[in-house]
Design a protein that fits this description.
The chain is built from 26 helices and 2 strands. It has helices spanning 2-11, 17-33, 39-57, 60-73, 101-116, 118-127, 154-161, 166-176, 179-185, 189-201, 209-216, 228-244, 254-261, 267-281, 291-307, 313-316, 324-332, 341-354, 357-369, 371-375, 380-392, 397-407, 413-445, 451-464, 477-487, 495-513; strands spanning 132-135, 144-147.
């Protein structure tokens, strides 16, 4: 950091006194704070000066001069320069994502707003007997734990909607999401210690290991925190969850969520918060059948038609699933692949306190904010581009969340629950019909059985064996083969054939586990959380 600021001092125009002063202030702060023994205070003292410094540098003259100098330094070294950074000049936000200088100013503005509310937090916590702080280790961000935490209340909810201070997020998310309770119910820290030992014994042997290893290098590429050490932590969290919940194992999307949690907390806490997301916030999203995700998309489309009818005109003329080609990713990744980083984490603050209804409210707020632009589009591809651009530039989290929590205040958890019940039956029915067709094809390839035999077996599987929902098949080989032998007695001695059928039956669901949600290719400006 000091190298970059020294280099910037060499290239700030002599006439730009404000920028010169900002750079000098930054260098003085760095020199002073590098001697500090308090890691948390050092980090935040330096960051507190970043806003004014960037404000000066992001003036038109400052951007032009520094930007041109940065480009030149990558091509050749000028004899006139006495100092050039040993690495290319890259600007990252506070969470490690590469951003442009104008975007950095917006990020700094967001954090200044959040830091301005710190006094409100400290007073609230003190008034509710939560004034004891401990430094927490494990995450990439400076982190403090506060205890005891306050009880749920309207005042606490209001404060959370305004944003949790960055250094308190890890502690607050761990508590508010229900992760802390999950850990206690499982026996405390001993559970994760045993899990670590089990993972060491099963190195490379877990069914999900191959997919996890493939996705490690694809997770937030370019983020300065995603180094080899972070990837190993991410691998541990994902493998641990695949052992905890074999019916889910590992599914793409979980890597993006877990890696962001690791910015704020240890592997153990990230594991439990990921468990809370998969099991409580997004149940059924990462299952092989995606029933939860498909149901919620049907619910969201219905809500959008009712409450954002003007924004939905272009989608209403298209296929019923058109909107979900964008919004599925919003929900599955909790907006992390679509919104700027600080806006994403502001959304997460409320999600962990209020649950998944926040996702519906924020989604509707995006449609409401894009209403005029969407009305000007003539086809869904234009609408997709409009939504992608709006999300990637959504730096004003206050404006977004104000619409979500004020304009859509009437959207309650009960309404969402009723709609889920209404749509889930059709979603499961459609899935089961597709599965039946696939099973018939797989069994027919093996020969022996007629179409009538297959229909009878599937009836037994779904009715007699209480597998009315084929999206979650839980049946042993003994029970499976018993049903077949009951239907076709002469198959009793064809154990190898029955084994192949059993593998084919479950293989359908294994392949479904790898099925990606129906979303389009990411928008070029949408591959990271912030605008480059």
């Amino acid at each position: 950091a000091t190298e970059h600021w020294l280099w910037l001092r060499e290239h700030v125009p002599s006439g730009n006194k404000e920028a010169q002063s900002a750079v000098e202030s930054m260098l003085m702060a760095l020199q002073q704070e590098l001697c500090s023994t308090d890691a948390v205070n050092k980090e935040w003292a330096v960051r507190g000066l970043l806003g004014p410094a960037w404000q000066a540098l992001c003036s038109e003259d400052g951007m032009n001069i520094v930007g041109e100098a940065a480009d030149d330094s990558l091509q050749s070294l000028s004899p006139r320069r006495t100092f050039v950074p040993t690495v290319p000049l890259q600007i990252t936000d506070f969470y490690g994502f590469t951003v442009s200088m104008p975007t950095m100013q917006k990020v700094a503005d967001q954090l200044r707003v959040l830091e301005g509310r710190r006094k409100d937090w400290e007073k609230f916590l003190s008034d509710h007997g939560s004034g004891h702080y401990d430094v927490e280790e494990g995450g990439c961000m400076p982190s403090r734990a506060v205890h005891p935490l306050p009880e749920r209340s309207v005042a606490f909810r209001s404060l959370i909607r305004q944003g949790i201070p960055v250094d308190l997020r890890g502690c607050m998310w761990f508590h508010l999401s229900g992760a802390q309770q999950k850990m206690q119910d499982a026996g405390g820290s001993a559970y994760f210690s045993r899990m670590r030992a089990k993972l060491l014994r099963s190195e490379g042997a877990l069914p999900s290991d191959g997919d996890i290893d493939k996705d490690l290098g694809r997770t937030w590429t370019g983020n300065r925190f995603m180094d080899e050490s972070m990837q190993q932590k991410l691998r541990t969290v994902l493998r641990a969850y695949s052992v905890r919940n074999p019916s889910v194992g590992y599914c793409q999307g979980m890597n993006f969520l877990a890696s962001l949690l690791l910015l704020f907390m240890s592997e153990e806490h990230a594991f439990w918060v990921l468990s809370a997301i998969v099991e409580d916030v997004l149940p059924g999203y990462f299952h092989s059948a995606l029933v939860g995700a498909l149901t919620d998309q049907a619910v969201f489309r219905e809500l959008a038609l009712r409450r954002c009818s003007k924004s939905m005109k272009v989608f209403a003329m298209a296929d019923a699933s058109a909107l979900s080609m964008v919004t599925t990713e919003w929900f599955m990744c909790l907006f992390s692949k679509n919104m700027p980083s600080e806006t994403t984490f502001r959304i997460w603050d409320s999600v962990f306190y209020e649950g998944s209804k926040t996702l519906f409210r924020v989604g509707l707020a995006v449609l409401r904010m894009c209403e005029s632009a969407l009305q000007e589009t003539t086809n869904v591809m234009q609408a997709f581009a409009t939504l992608n651009e709006a999300c990637s530039g959504m730096h004003n989290a206050d404006a977004l969340l104000n619409i979500a929590f004020v304009d859509f205040k009437s959207l309650q958890r009960r309404t969402i629950k009723n709609l889920r019940q209404s749509f889930s039956e059709n979603v499961r029915k459609d899935f089961n019909e597709r599965q039946v067709m696939s099973m018939k094809a797989a069994i027919a390839e093996e020969g022996y059985l007629t179409s009538a035999n297959v229909d009878g077996l599937l009836h037994d599987l779904s009715e007699v064996h209480h597998l009315a929902d084929l999206s979650d098949p839980v049946i042993s080989f003994e029970a499976f083969s018993g049903l077949f032998v009951h239907a076709v007695p002469w198959l009793q001695d064809e154990n190898a054939y029955l084994q192949r059928l059993f593998v084919a039956f479950h293989g359908l669901h294994d392949r479904q586990r790898q099925m990606k949600p129906p979303v389009p290719q990411p928008h070029p400006r949408n591959s990271r959380m912030t605008v480059s």
